[in-house]
Every structure is written in structure tokens, then in C-alpha cells.
UniProtKB/TrEMBL annotation:
GO molecular function, one term: DNA binding
Pfam families: HTH_26
SMART domains assigned: HTH_XRE (SM00530)
Source organism (scientific name): Bifidobacterium pseudolongum subsp. globosum
Name of protein: DNA-binding protein
Keyword DNA-binding found: yes
InterPro entries the record matches: Cro/C1-type_HTH (IPR001387), Lambda_DNA-bd_dom_sf (IPR010982)
Domain HTH cro/C1-type: 8-61
Transmembrane segments annotated in the record for this chain: none
Keywords for the protein's UniProt record, in alphabetical order: DNA-binding
Presence of the UniProt keyword Ligase in the record: no
Length: 76
């Protein structure tokens, strides 16, 4: 799950969007978003709203997360 947080943080940087803006757009409370970006535990509903707020398909976010996890696994 930590890889998902890394990918979401990368997307925020790429889109020049703050966590506060993402929280407002996705209707996920800012403190909840911050905690889940660092620890994990997003619900499907939250991820769907986050993907919509980022203007992306959820499947694209998941693909990027899986690719990152695979790279990290190879590095070990």
C-alpha cells in the first residue's frame, strides 16, 4: 500500500496540485488524505474520487503503482 501513496504524491507533483486541493476536489478530509498517503488504507470509493479529481482513470493509477512495486522488488 505504501507504493500507492508514493504514486499519488508523484501525480500531485506532476499536476502541480496540493494535497489540500486534492482533498477538496475528492471530498476526502485533508488529514485523512495525508495519513493515507503515508500509511495506506484507501477505500475504493476514496480512490475513485481521487482519480476523478486528478482527471485520471483509477486503472492508470493502479498500473503505475504495480510498476513501482515491481521495480522496488527487483531492486531487493
Amino acid at each position: 500500500m505504501k507504493h500507492l501513496g508514493v504514486v499519488l504524491k508523484q501525480l500531485l507533483i506532476e499536476q502541480e496540485m496540493s494535497q489540500t486541493a486534492l482533498a477538496e476536489e475528492s471530498d476526502v478530509p485533508r488529514n485523512t488524505l495525508n495519513r493515507k498517503l503515508n500509511v495506506g488504507g484507501f477505500t475504493y470509493d476514496e480512490l475513485t474520487r481521487i482519480a476523478d479529481a486528478l482527471g485520471m482513470k483509477l486503472s492508470t493509477i493502479i498500473e503505475r503503482t504495480e510498476a513501482l512495486a515491481a521495480r522496488k522488488e527487483q531492486d531487493q
